[in-house]
Design brief:
The protein is α/β, with parallel strands linked by helices. The protein is built from 9 helices and 5 strands, in the order βαβαααβαβαααβα. α2 crosses α4 (about 60-75) and α3 (about 45-55) packs antiparallel against α4 (about 60-75). The protein is globular.
Length: about 190
């Protein structure tokens, strides 16, 4: 079983690359954003609980996010592996994910970070915002705030996974095919 955490700032290409990686390596793609939206749209108990936090303007607590993620893993126990996208975002989340996977006698195989210059990513998101309809991709100040959040909360995970010798950086600039090839080279050598 191969379990990969895909990192990268907004606009780095995580979603695009996740599509290729899940097909090539037969992985189950677990995007926390997609999981939240599914649970809230279908008004599951966990979705209703998450919506209550969001409606109050609060962050969904790690414990609830982890419960949703665990449910998705349990739905896919026959998977050849998982591609975690958008989770973990903090060290406590990484600890919780490690503990959950350990309870299944699994572990994170590797973490891969798509690296790119902020200025290039800002332009990518502003371009995407013209067609995506996502308001958070249309406001440069909001984009830069998202990068600040990433630097403060998610970037420390690089050290967490480097200490476990499970961290790999991949240049996220270039054509989709070029970036996919770089990612494949890393994964093929795990």
């Amino acid at each position: 079983m191969i379990n990969i955490v895909l990192f990268g700032k907004p606009g780095a290409g995580k979603g695009t690359q996740a599509e290729f990686l899940k097909e090539k390596y037969h992985l189950t793609h677990l995007s926390t954003g997609d999981i939240f939206r599914f649970n809230m749209k279908n008004e599951t108990l966990l979705g209703q609980e998450a919506k209550a936090y969001i409606d109050r303007g609060d962050l969904v607590p790690d414990s609830l996010t982890i419960k949703m993620l665990e449910e998705e893993v349990h739905k896919n126990l026959n998977s050849k592996g998982f591609l975690f996208d958008g989770f973990p975002r903090t060290i406590p989340q990484a600890d919780a994910l490690d503990a959950f996977l350990k309870s299944k006698n699994w572990e994170i195989t590797a973490t891969v970070a798509l690296e790119a210059d902020d200025e290039i990513l800002v332009q990518r998101l502003l371009e995407r915002g013209k067609t995506s309809g996502r308001p958070d991709d249309q406001d440069e100040a909001k984009i830069r705030n998202r990068y600040q959040e990433y630097n403060e909360k998610t970037a420390p995970l690089m050290h967490y996974y480097k200490a476990q010798q499970k961290f790999h950086e991949v240049n996220g600039i270039g054509s989709i095919a070029e970036v996919t090839e770089r990612l494949s080279t890393v994964i093929d050598h795990l």
